[in-house]
Amino acid sequence: MKAAVFKQIGGDLEIVEVPVPEPKQGWVRIKVHSCGVCHSDNACKYGNFGNSYPRIPGHEVFGEIEKLGEGVDPNYFKIGKLVGVGWFGGNHCGKCRECLNDQWIFCKESLICGIHYDGGYAEYMVAPSDSLAFVPEGMNAEETAPLLCAGITVFNSFRNQNIKVGSLVGVQGLGGLGHLAIQFCKKMGYEVIAMSSGDQKEKLAKELGAAHYVNISKDGWIDQMKAIGSVQCILLTAPSSSIVQSSLDALGVNGKLVLLALLPEPFNANSLTLIGGNKSIIGWSSGDSRDTEQTLNFANKNQVKAMVKTFPLENVNEALLKIADARFRHVVKIL
Ligand SMILES: [Zn+2]
Ligand SMILES: [Zn+2]
């Protein structure tokens, strides 16, 4: 089969012919239809999580069940069923404190797809059965792939903040995560303020469902936010360290600031702003395969769609290198 592989740390992806992998006990073979390109693929390239090489990256995998390893229930994991695999790569133990607390993603046995084992930049891949999320029939392979990492990250982080439906929420950044966050928050019943630099993205933000648009590169934007109302949550999808304190200032009483992307450096926040307004700063990873399944079901029922540009597997390096100037999400089309 054809696959794109990092042969050594820091290298480019190389297209190679490799044997189709066999699913071991408890694992499933997936025929890959498409795979979304995520910034975190670079974690595989640079070995940030200690992966070995050669390694096939890709953790926004959309495909179909093709073969079952020993011990996988054929009545539940039916051959031909559409499935997705995200950052949570399965293999949770089910016995540790984190598992018993229903936090599979924090189990020490849990693996990361495309880091600890080969991911979706290939015609076939194998994954533990607990990493699989069933995809509702009829969902489009290219538009759905980004929901498996970017989508679940915004949907699952936000729904866990317990913000009252109808409240004002801000979405900072209008890239891969942000354009999905606006749609999800709107469809979940919130009044969304899109927060981005410049005025050129206002039209698009409103088409995606934002009720308001605030240009955060202009002086006075914090007052503009406050004038709209009491903002109960801001999702930072493309943060810089300076946006943290100003977003805290823009939040209303009890407001929550949720970090969804890594900041390039440590940030400063004024404790008086936090204590004086019962405000909090929250970090959130993504979620597990059950959260992914709920993300997909919600997106399917509510027509939340990723805006994508597709690439053939041969052009995967271009898709990954140009991710910084991607208008939303790049997706590698494999089938
Ligand atoms: Zn990702
Ligand atoms: Zn565990």
Automatic annotation (TrEMBL):
PROSITE patterns: ADH_ZINC (PS00059). Its cofactor is Zn(2+). Coiled coil: none annotated. It comes from the Eukaryota. Keywords: Metal-binding, NAD, Oxidoreductase, Zinc. Residues 10-332 form the Enoyl reductase (ER) domain. Transmembrane segments: none annotated. The keyword Oxidoreductase applies. It holds the Pfam family ADH_N. GO terms for molecular function: oxidoreductase activity, acting on the CH-OH group of donors, NAD or NADP as acceptor; zinc ion binding. Belongs to the zinc-containing alcohol dehydrogenase family. PANTHER family: ALCOHOL DEHYDROGENASE 1-RELATED, ALCOHOL DEHYDROGENASE-LIKE N-TERMINAL DOMAIN-CONTAINING PROTEIN. This is Zinc-containing alcohol dehydrogenase.
